Each structure stands twice: as C-alpha cells, then as structure tokens.
Amino acid sequence: MLNSNSYNILVTGSNGQLGSEIKELSKDYSYNFFFTTRIDFDITSKDDIRNFCQINNINVIINCAAYTAVDKAESDEQNADLINRKAVKKLALISKELNIKLIHISTDYVFDGKNFKPYCEEFQTNPQSIYGKTKLDGENEMRDINPKNSIIIRTSWVYSYYGNNFVKTMLRLGKEREELGVIFDQIGTPTYAKDLAKTILDIVPQIDNQKVEIYNYSNEGVLSWYDFAKEIMKMAKLNCKINPIETYQYPTPAKRPHYSLLNKNKIKSTFNIEIPYWKDGLDDCLRRLGERR
Description:
Layout: E1 8-12, H1 17-25, E2 32-35, H2 46-55, E3 60-63, H3 70-73, H4 77-98, E4 101-107, H5 130-145, E5 151-155, E6 158-159, H6 166-176, E7 179-183, E8 187-188, E9 191-192, H7 193-203, E10 213-217, E11 223-224, H8 225-236, E12 241-245, H9 265-271, H10 278-288
Parallel strand pairs: 1-2, 1-3, 3-4, 4-5, 5-10, 6-9, 7-12
Antiparallel strand pairs: 8-11
Helix pairs in contact: 1-7, 2-4, 4-5, 6-8, 8-10
C-alpha cells in the first residue's frame, strides 16, 4: 500500500460545496492535492484527463464535479448527461488505464423514494428526474468499465459553509419573512459536506476492492425539510414561523423522492467510521457562518 505522502489526489469540481470542504481540510492530510475546475482541464475529454493525470502522476481521483441543478436538468438533459454520465465514463476509462483509484459522488435521487425503510446500496434504483437518471447512468458507466479500487458514494441533501444550499436559503428568508412554508412530506437526512469530505479523505488508504463498490453516506438521523428548517431557525434564533406544507403545494419541474433515507451500515462497517448526527453538523456549519446564536 502507498504511504499517504505518495497519494497524488486530483479533486475535480473543486469549487463546489464538497470540493471546497475537501480543499479546506486538505491541510490536515499529508496527501498531495490537485484542485481543479473546468478552467484547468475538460473532464469530458479523455485526452485532457489522461494528460493531466500523467503529468502530475495522479493515483487517486475524487470526482466532485456534477450537474446538480435538479430542476434545470429537466429542460437541459444534454448538459446534465455530459457531466453526470459522459464525464464519469471518461474518468473511469482513464482510471482503469492508468490504475487510478476513483471516488465518485452520486445521489439518493437514483431511487424513486417510494420505500418505507432506509435504502441499502443494492436496492432497486428507479430515478424520477433527469438529474437522477443521468447520475444513475454515470454510476452504470463506471461499474461497466470497473476501474480497480474504485467506489461510488451516494449522498443526500448536501449543504455546506460554501456555495448555495438549503441552510443559507433558510437563513436569508428567515431574516426577510415572518413565516415560511416548508415541505414536511419528504423524508431523509441532510449531509454536511465537511463531514463527507473528512470521511472521503480518511478512507482513501483503505479502499481496496476488485469491483466498483457503492456506499451510502449522509449524517445520522431522520427528518423532513420542515424539521430541518425549524432547527435552522431555532439554532440561529430567527423569529420566522415555519409552516408544514405538502409537496403538491410547492410544485417543481423535477420530481423529488418522498422518502430517501440512506442505510449507512456498509460504509461504517467496511471502513470502521462513525458518522456525526445531523444536528451536530448543522451546529458546526452555523458557527462557521457566524449565525449560531
């Protein structure tokens, strides 16, 4: 096994929520990092990926690049497919060719959300949106190519100190309005991107598998978006009343899963990790944002 100093890690999509959190945590690890965005090279070009990886002797890729505009994807399938499927295929092909560990981030939207118990990795997929479909297509491309020592991590409801997300939207609206309607009939768990970033960096040396493995990761606990919004207001001490509404009262172009709780036993037992409770992640994020009261 390589010692940690000899890991040359390429992080794609490094300006996004997860990539930014990995960048901030990178100083605590003795890996060599290469943080890239679409300006640095084109992840939809096999030649670009190969050249970058060969020049920099890359032996791990963490693919944080994704088309995540869920509603926009409904009318922009071509671009969603380009980033969520085709780019993943190219990354997987080069990873196999150059013997690179590939860690790819996927989503709970690959499921239809009609379940009544937490989703395990092997449960039947049935995406209900273009976003979910293109993400699943990317997973399938990677599994078909099957680069050695590579994994897919499905996550849900991601938020962070960086970028635009539900937490920041609630903080803004909580200051502007006296009351808000938030959906209570979509159930899952938020993922604090910093917690996911730390898990990814911790497990890099332990990844050792012949075929692509899928793992679920979110924070611990179970809640609705309504519960999440209530807790944000409570922790930030904002006097904004949160009213529970049903999904049909807030129509969106893309269909969301009603229930997308992820079973995380596999990642916890395989890598011997503990996952923080969702309120602890929220508390940390609000402190970093200077909004914890």
